[in-house]
Amino acid sequence: MVSRPERLLRHREDPVSASFLELFFDLAFVFTLNQVAVVLLADLSVGGALRTTLLLAAVWFLWVTTTWSADWYAPDAPVVRVVLVGSALGGLLMGAAVPSALEGRAALFVGAYLAVNAVRGLLGLFVLRGHPLRRRIARILCWFAVSGVFWLAGLFLPAARVPLWALAVIVEYAGPAAGWPTLRLGRARPGELRLRGAHFAERFQQVFIISLGELILSAGLAYAQSGTSVAQTSAFLLIFATAVLLGLLYVTPGGRQLASAIERAEPARLGAASNLLHLVMIAGVVSTAVGAELAIGHPGEPGAVAVVAAGPALFLAGRLLLAAAIDRRFSLPRLLGLPALAVVGLVAADLPLLVATAVTTAVLVAVAAVDRSRVFAPG
User: For the whole model, what pTM was predicted?
Assistant: First the structure.
């Protein structure tokens, strides 16, 4: 007779397609990404970019850990419904707090984040009582308890908030790669970390589309609020082309290999790498969204070219490393695209934003065209 905890876990015969509630959870991520872009737009300095990255890393880890839970449990298990609905609410609250997360709304940001992690972990301990995989939940909850100390310390010590929260993020991202080693519980075995490759790859693709939606939304709003001059219309069309190119570079051809790669690989290696590299790619899309607002709103003005070039460059770097993690080799077109975008950022610094956007889009067109040719191995 199958035990109750066993019935709650995902099995091979369960469908791998994302459920309605998983897609509903992703909707909260649209709003939160938009709020992250607002933070970067308000401060384009290096310090502003680092602070934005810190907030994005926390938001992204909420998405990742929620998706892990949805992958580990049966799609129709009540615990999954509670986790997804609760995480959607938590994500919305974090998104509302993001613009002032380092100042007046720090308590809302941290409180929502810690509440989601705690409830998800405690709920897992309750429903899996008596099952061996309960130890997996216990390990993760212990690591969240450690990172939670840094989150709370930063909340009560505003002067040290950024470094303390950075330590919290480092602890959280180190956990999966290390197998969450915990006193008396040991390190998680590979079987405990196994992910359904088809499900997780589909979820990555869906959340990347969500990030592209934020890029298109930002461009559309900027164009709706600006004039319809030739320069502004041209900037809008270039940004739309950039969104299409980023999507093509993500899914073809190596994006289709991610599912089988996750199934074959040692989970702690490719699973952790995929999480981190998708963060890099999504950071690139968010940066591109900020560049889009600037280019559409002020196409004839110089400045902020670094943001325009940095977004696609971040995406290419993440996609290049993901391809290397999948099949252990680099895509030459993407590798050459990175220095090309760096040159754009340096040479076009005094050129109008419309020109810089056009050159950046041209680089992406060249990378996508060569990447799809038969001369180069897919990756």
Answer: 0.88
